[in-house]
């Protein structure tokens, strides 16, 4: 997610920071995992509480510089790893007293503004969109995948109604010339039947490509699954999302772990599963008007959280099956 710039310095606003702290309660101590370190806004705030330890992850190696400054200040209590959060299970954490895991999904303002990353449709040059530790770039996707696959990506991850026409025009264009960022923007503009005055014509397609290039759906699903295993009793999993697809997955997963499926009285009785989590509030927490005024991009943020009620490592969920269509689409990347 983006933060706002104030002055020439890249000023970062951690979204819903007060609210995150109030749900993970670091004043009680314990180990906290900040899965999306970024500029370290959440990590720094947690470390202000004396009995805490923080392990932070970020897939973007650029975050390391900021992390090194924090490591100097808290050499005993802070540790950073350049790792994708779906790989949380590669870390030996079973014996840690993990009391909170936080995700602040998306991109930092610094990343959006980085011309080398090419995340925005205002970028110039070769298509890229890689956040870090990627297997392929947007350039590979646009110039190599088949028409039908491009259409599915743009439709499913961007909710773009003109996905068919856009992908047809991409394939036509690349027969003559390799497509760069600005070529893609003009292909999309030419393909759109109706222009939406509120958002740029390329917004949805670029969102779809960023999700696909960074495998954001697989990252989120496996990040969540690995998190709930390692949390200790009373530990909190808190996730801030920025678009409806992310929020839909988090909402489903949290419900799946904290509620039994309702069955009609006409259906045969099935054994209800043991619930390991509690969801104190069904509605997401959203930024105050004041926060939105100070940091416009926070307007689409939604914070959801669940609390674990035992120390079990085995957690039953069907989230992979539920979103298998999205995971299958992300798998098109395996041939690149
Ligand atoms: C919105 S920023 C986080 C900002 C942070 N909360 C702060 O206060 O500075 C999101 C960060 O998550 C990182 N990120 C996104 N997906 C990731 C993944 N799958 N694994 C690890 N880091 C990821 C991005 O590189 C980015 O730095």
Overall description:
- Helices cover 39% and strands 11% of the residues.
- The chain has helices spanning 17-24, 41-47, 63-73, 109-113, 138-144, 147-158, 163-174, 181-191, 203-213, 216-230, 244-258, 289-294, 319-322, 324-330; strands at 30-34, 52-57, 78-81, 98-104, 236-241, 277-278, 302-308.
- It is α/β, with parallel strands linked by helices and 336 residues long.
- The protein contains 14 helices and 7 strands.
- The chain folds into 2 domains: 17-110 and 216-315, Rossmann fold, CATH 3.40.50.150; 135-213, DNA polymerase, domain 1 (Orthogonal Bundle), CATH 1.10.150.
- It starts with 16 loop residues before the first helix and ends in a 6-residue tail after the last helix.
- It is globular.
- The model is unreliable at 1-9 (pLDDT under 50).
- Helix 6 crosses helix 9 (203-213) and helix 10 runs parallel beside helix 11.
- The protein has a 7-stranded mixed β-sheet, sandwiched between helices.
- The structure holds S-adenosylmethionine.
